Amino acid sequence: MKIIILIVVFVTSNLSVLSQSIQEPSKSFTEAIRTNFVKYKNQSSEAYRIGDFERGQFLFDSLVQNQLIGSKFNDYTLKRINNRKLKMSKVKKPIFLVTYAAWCIPGKGEIPALNKLAKENKAIEFIVIVFGKKKEAGKFAKKFNSSIEIGYAHKNYKNDNEIVESMRETLGFPTCYMIDEHLQVVNIKRGSASTPLKTPTKKAVEMNYSIFSDRLSELIQLKQNKKELLVTN
């Protein structure tokens, strides 16, 4: 009898975990940002003003862990260079999204590392959002290979205000958003590898590849965990 009870508890627990991972989040990403960003900005600005970079990073990590993870990423319709549009909800697989600005030069080895990672991981949708006007974004987009979807957004363009306000004007760039196939935020990380100008190109690519790969592993592991739970149950 005890064994039966334990089996029931185990199965129920696994179903609960799986259900929580795919259920509709209680808040949107934009709502979470609007509600919590001002407090974070004030506290982090003070930390960076006095040179307490460790606390600044701690505050960012706390914002992500306590407020943003688990929120529902907005179902944006992204403008693409080829004039076709990409609606986020139409992507039926996990998303690795990175933001850049057309006027800001990426770190050494950063884009080649992303290109390599995207080419190797077809089960993940790689999306880059370039903040800037279409012409500027078009030039920037040429740096990426065909394995990466390139979108762009500018505050003067129709329907782009929310993207710019909730992403560029809050978490900045470059920022990585790990999003599952249900548009639920898995994690958010800022920056890339710190590569001095004298760093050999091959080494710079390897450093960035390692960082991006670690971030991507969260999406891959989550997807694998869901598959295992479904098989178990």
From TrEMBL:
Superkingdom: Bacteria
Keywords associated with the record: Isomerase
Annotated Thioredoxin domain residues: 67-191
Keyword Cell cycle: no
Gene Ontology MF, one: oxidoreductase activity
Keyword Isomerase: yes
Protein name: Thiol-disulfide isomerase/thioredoxin
Species lineage: Bacteria, Pseudomonadati, Bacteroidota, Flavobacteriia, Flavobacteriales
InterPro entries linked to this entry: AhpC/TSA, Thioredoxin-like_sf, Thioredoxin_domain
Pfam family of the protein (one): AhpC-TSA
